[in-house]
Amino acid sequence: MAELRRPVAIVSWASFETPNEPARNEVEMLLPVIQEAVGKVGLTQQDIGFTVSGSSDYLQGFPFAFVGALDAVGAWPPIRESHVEMDGAFALYEAVNVLQEEGIDTALVYAFARPSRGELDRTLALQLDPYYVAPLWPDARGLAGLQAQAMKDSGRFGDVPDVPPTYVADGCVAVVLAVGDRARELTDTPVWIRGIDHRIESPSLGVRDLTASPSTKTAGETAGAHDVDAAWLHVPYPHQELVLREALGLDGQPVDSATGPVMVGGLERLAAAAAGIAGGKARRAVAHATSGPCLQQNLVAVLEGASR
Amino acid sequence: MSEAAGDVTIVETPIHLDFSYTPGVASSRFLRSVEKGQIVGQRCPRCQKVYMPPRGACSMCGVATDEELTLSGKGTVCTFCVTRIPSPGLEAPYVSAWIRLDGADITSMFLIQECDPDEVRLGMRVEAVWVHEADRKPDLGNIKYFRPTGEPDADYDTYKDYV
Q1: Which residue in chain B has the smallest CA separation from A76?
Q2: Tell me: the pLDDT tens digits for A26-79?
Q3: Is the ipTM, as predicted for this complex, more than 0.95?
Q4: Which residue in the set A21, A22, A117 is minimally distant from B19, CB to CB?
Q5: Pair A25, A71: CB distance under 8 Å
Q6: With a cut of 70, which residues of chain A have pLDDT below it?
Q7: Which residues of B touch A57 (CB under 8 A)?
Q8: What distances in angstroms separate CA B137 from CA A37, A201, B134, one per listed residue?
Q9: Domains in chain A, CATH or no CATH each
Q10: In this complex, is the C-beta atom of B8 within 8 Å of any C-beta atom belonging to chain A?
């Protein structure tokens, strides 16, 4: 989506992250974060027009875990609700689309994960091609290593950082979106989503050039990611920042990179960019999120502080 | 599509992942209570509904349920089913019932024993039968089954919303 018919702004956010959440389950972890995000702009769950989440049942180890998470939302009377089995940033993309509908003016987007309870490196193998790749159980760090090695071999990147162990942390994030005048009513500092797009590359790692990210490049072009004065990038492994900088054509702007909990880190980047803009650190910024092995899927949003 | 000799029609790709399950704060407290032979529920501060087992949140209001209360272990049969084919560990016929524990606002499924299946009826008053104290674990299996208390049947109005 290059142009939004109905302008959408990030009006509130809250997040939580810990290396290993010891006692609370997903719902107990989510509840205060959702209430903080919704409460900051004086709303209650009953005021939210559309609710959507990003998470993976494979991390929790039982089916329809994402439905159980609705206990943290209060889905009565019945609400408009959706879910993506991806990072919460991709849920935000769905929310921006739904907000283009007349009559829906606010949306709650949240993401959660507690990968500390399982084996994240192995669990992520289940998102690979189920016939030829997943049965080999390649660990996520190993696949990132293939990418880093391809980058070293290309000679295009100078020093390519080593691949650390896959980042494991538990956490959640909640973001509230609102449309046009509703956003201005809710906050003095709405952060407008000027453009947003996401693209996917082949699931077959062998056919991809892992040293480039054409999906990020195309998503960035469609979202209008030019003339930005800062970037918030979602970087599961450090070497990937180099690929993303190149794909987005970043040239000296300050870049804030972070990993965050799986399924959560991308949406957290959008929230962090919104916080940066609302706090005056940037006027127009690009926020990026990724999902899948070796930057397979990428989302780019262009955020701006000036009111519309 | 023809199945020429040698075509692969099925591939087996076994999947196995290990997880450690965390019940959560509310469920942990509940499981510790049944370990002691007690049933603890939680009340929603907004709609006042009492959840048993508690999950730490009111799924209708989306708020934390902090207030705990101990239920008596007696309840009312709201609906039931007589199964006439055996299940592992259960001889036929056996009775499963949705029971509304006194003070709770949701029903839970338990077995009913110590009476003829034909005697089980809506409104029947029942009570929990626990496993021996020495054998109790943090597990709802501590309640072996429910049995009739012999009290008069509950008034229909007290359970009509749960039938």
Answers
A1: B60
A2: 999 999 999 999 999 999 988 999 999 999 999 988 889 999 999 999 898 999
A3: no
A4: A117
A5: no
A6: 1-2, 307-308
A7: none
A8: 39, 50, 9
A9: 8-117+166-190 (3.40.47.10)
A10: no
